[in-house]
Amino acid sequence: MKFTKHISILFLLLATSIASAQVKFEAKVSKKKLGVNERLRIDFEMNKDGDNFVPPSFKDFTVVGGPNTSLMNSYTNGKKSYLKTYSYFLAPKKRGKLTIKQATIEIDGEVYKTFPVTVNVTAAVDRPNAPPGASEIASENIHLVAEVSKTDPYLNEGFTVVYKLYVSPETGVSNWREKDNPRYNDFWSQNIEIKGLNIQKGLYKGEEYRYVVLRKTVLYPQKTGKLKIEPLVLDITVEVPTGRADIFGRAIMTKVPKTVTAGSRTINVKPLPEQEKPSDFKGAVGDFSFQVTTSKTELDATESLQAKIEVSGKGNLKLFELPKLTTPSSLEVYEPEHQENVRTNLNGMQGRISDTYTIVPQYRGKYPVPPISFSYFDLKTETYKRITSDEIVINVLEGPTAAGTNSSNSTTSANPKQTVRSNTNAFAFIKTTTNWSSIRSTPFFKSTGFWSLLLLPFLAIPLAIIIRKKKDERDADVQGNRIRRADKLARKYLSEAKKHLGQKEAFYESLERALHNYLKAKLNIETSDFNKEKIEALLLERQVENDVISNFISILENCELARYTPITQVTMQNDYDKAAKTISLIDKQIK
């Protein structure tokens, strides 16, 4: 019994150690001993993403930088590793042994804490570590921020997320690319096109910065509760001053690669109130007007008219159904044609949606179209509102009558029964006579078709041998197959680039891949060998004209500038046409 108890305890300890090994959250300092005039860097690292990070108070230090967030995903031997870091730069307020207390974070519903860290602060040193490294300078001067217009919207209430990259005046950015795009689960989303990245001036934590708006997105939550917006992650090349100057007195800059993230955001979506919710409410949220109109109210039988149900205004126009049209059974009504004229900007969806019904009356008389109601939730007053249309009467002037009595009275009588008149010629459309003709069948045996099918397999044998031989020759041509695959891939990417016209990042990424794969097909070089000088030398060697080579190099440079330079504006259609023309010229000239 005692042995079994010990085994149980051992398994419990083992399970606890395995669980704790899965999640790591720890604090690391740049040094354990420093002068009172030096700076200390502390990193809080975790190997799984978490929420509600709470740093220690830092009561014995002055926070001179941070928090800066970095994110790293890597693969080693097929295994994915994840590392997220919150960094702070601290200046001690006094000498002695100072303790930085625990930080906490919530990961997968569990709260994790770091161990307290103690550092020894001595008297001031002659040469402090005050000039920080280039990486530390970059971390202090580059910030990616996600600005959310509203963190507690109602269900189906629109709000915006604007991603801004802040750069301090003494720091520069030479290029950037999106490493991980946010996925908006449980939201209807639409990105707002940004025409050119304009550099603006603004404040970040009270200090002057330059910034560019990288992305604007409109979101409409589709469920209630706490919803998570994933972070945007960028790889950036940052230019930071080295503290040295050239012979002309200009500051010498050094380039540092950095990964920055805007961090995840949590949106608390409120449910729409159940109290006084109309029975005909179908999810419309915003500020709307509603009307029901007809193209005409007087016509003859078998003529047609259009009845339009239309909602206009501001709100989730694409996310709810319009009320249905109800008509008397004597009117023939066709399925509606749905139309949307909606534009989406930072203020959300605005415009109008409509259903247009085609109605064809069959008999003479007056036919009332009952009133139709439309309900929506008004965000300004936070109450439900209902709009009801007027009754519409359709007057059919000429045509057959549906009842033995006057049709105008039949619609108002207490018992509007209709008499049905029999038609003795109702089945006149069915043919009752036939015109038969005899056919003579010939035996298939020994016919031309019979002998053709019999001899066809024997005739196909030589053709199959030739095809197999050609296939074997083609399969043996390893170099040729590789070139053909690359050539096919280049055509594929060029067609993809055409599909992405108007989408800047996707277009230039596809165009650049197409150009690279074209070179792999024609010059037999690998991607790792690509550089402008080698491309130019190889094309000259293959007797391609200098002007064509210059055009090809300029297209590659346009791809780099368009993808990485925030202030560059390009014309995608011109670059696509130029690329197609240049590839055609190289094909004609290459030897």
Automatic annotation (TrEMBL):
Protein name: Protein BatD
UniProt cross-references to Pfam families, sorted A to Z: BatD (PF13584)
Keyword line: Membrane, Signal, Transmembrane, Transmembrane helix
Keyword Signal found: yes
TM segment ranges: 449-467
Signal sequence annotation: 1-21
Cross-referenced InterPro entries: BatD
